[in-house]
Amino acid sequence: MANTYLKRTLSGTPSVYTFSAWIKLGHIINGNNQYQSIFSNGAQQLLGLYGGGDTANHNALYHYNGSSIWYTNNLLRDPCAWYHVLLKVSSGTATTYINGVQTSYASSASLGALVTTADKLTVGCYAANTDSFFTGSMSHVHFCDGTAYNPTDFGSTDSTTGEWKINTSPNVNYGTDGFFILKDGNSVTDQSPNTNHFTVGGGTLTKTEDNPSNVFCNFNNLTPVPSASYSNGNTKAVDGAGAHKAFYGTLGFSSGKYYWEAKAVGGSKYTIGLSDVENYIYYTQVSNTNVIIGESSNSYNSGDAIGWYYNDINKNGSNIASGIHTIVTNDIIMVAADADNGKIYYGLNGTWRVANSTTFNAANNDTTFTTAKTYTPAFSGENCGWEVNWGNGYFGTSAVSSAGTNASNIGIFEYDVPSGFTALSTKGLNE
């Protein structure tokens, strides 16, 4: 939701209320005096992410009542997770929960009654200045006017996994100004018994298949790449330093068959492939036309780094096939990784390259990799970036032109997903 926000006007001035939402982080705050507002009204930032003068507090939840700020001792720093955040306010006192657990503050947090100033109830930015945008994703956003509910009204602990899981149809009273938006997509139409619809105040509100019940892979913005920037819910990564730093996915796999698509953005010498997370981390080293995605030292260790580099298929610094196609801006590369059999396949703009054949065939893989290791998608290039469709149906903010077939029914892709392959997501990993 970067630079995107929703707005509406309250009819009353609630002083007792509950705000509940599921959020997935975008940009991780790593600088001082940075803020991302999740829910705001007038001069009050009711709930947001905080980066204060102490780096130990970066990505805490915070409240600002127009004069004083409170931030929690609990931090949100996992770019793969969907978090449930809940704020309840009663008699001016604010209480916050993360995944059903009450947070703690240095002192009692105080928020005043809400105001009816036109268009100053906002989701995704600070209402007073239309800034401090939330850069991640949101789902199932509830506001209950007149009642301070507990998190157990909106979620519960899974008896098997111990994880906090969503209640998609909570039994709550929304009151006069209450609403329920972003239920199962990007609709800002109120799904509560009220008609308190929102409008998009700015930016582009895109739909994502990524949700609290099925978490999709995205870029891991905790990987230490100083020159990198991430956007569009961590589905786009750009390196402006020309230093061939590597970008990695948030989900790893050691078995199964997975498919994703990536569009090259700007720059040159693009690399796309897999990295063995046990041995290949942090950097991409380039020597002439050979590339190692994320090698952690100058030795090859015992891992695998496999990529389509520039115009060669490459494995651990050795060319498997040369002069295939020079990847250029706006090329869409298809990747199918078969961890059960240690095979990887590449396609270009809808046509499979596999061993100089245009037909996807299990025998015609581009190269092999060691099974029983954990791998993650890996990307690099020179002054360039990648927009990856992990299954959300978008490259950046551009929807796929015509969705291909996908027998697993997990994710939306530009091209047909090979038989037996699925999106790299929590449901896909558990198929």
Extended strand count: 35
| Backbone structural class | mainly beta
State the CATH topology of the largest domain.
Jelly Rolls
Helical stretch count? 1
Oligomer: single chain
Per CATH, the superfamily of the largest domain is SPRY domain
| Second-tier CATH architecture of the largest domain | Sandwich
Helix content: under 10%
Mean model confidence by pLDDT: 87
CATH class of the largest domain: Mainly Beta
Radius of gyration: 23 Å
Number of domains: 2
Shape: elongated
Gap between N and C termini? 30 Å
As residue ranges, the low-confidence spans are 281-302
Please characterize this protein's 3D structure:
With 431 residues, the chain is mostly beta strands. The chain has 2 domains: 5-202, Jelly Rolls, CATH 2.60.120.200; 228-429, Jelly Rolls. It is 1% helix and 39% strand. The chain has 1 helix and 35 strands. It has one helix at 426-429; strands spanning 5-8, 17-24, 34-41, 44-51, 60-64, 69-75, 82-90, 93-98, 101-102, 109-110, 121-123, 137-145, 155-157, 164-166, 179-181, 199-202, 228-231, 236-239, 247-248, 257-265, 268-276, 285-287, 290-292, 305-309, 312-315, 318-321, 332-338, 343-348, 351-352, 367-368, 375-382, 385-389, 394-395, 398-399, 422-423. Strands 17, 18, 20, 27, 28, 29, 30, 32 and 35 form a 9-stranded mixed sheet that branches. Strands 6-5-4-3-11-1-16 form a 7-stranded antiparallel sheet, with no helix packed on it. Strands 2, 7, 8, 9, 10, 12 and 15 form a 7-stranded antiparallel sheet that branches. The longest helix is centred in the last third of the chain and has 4 residues, at 426-429. It is elongated and about 70 Å long. The chain starts with a strand and ends with a helix. Mean pLDDT is 87; it is low at 281-302.
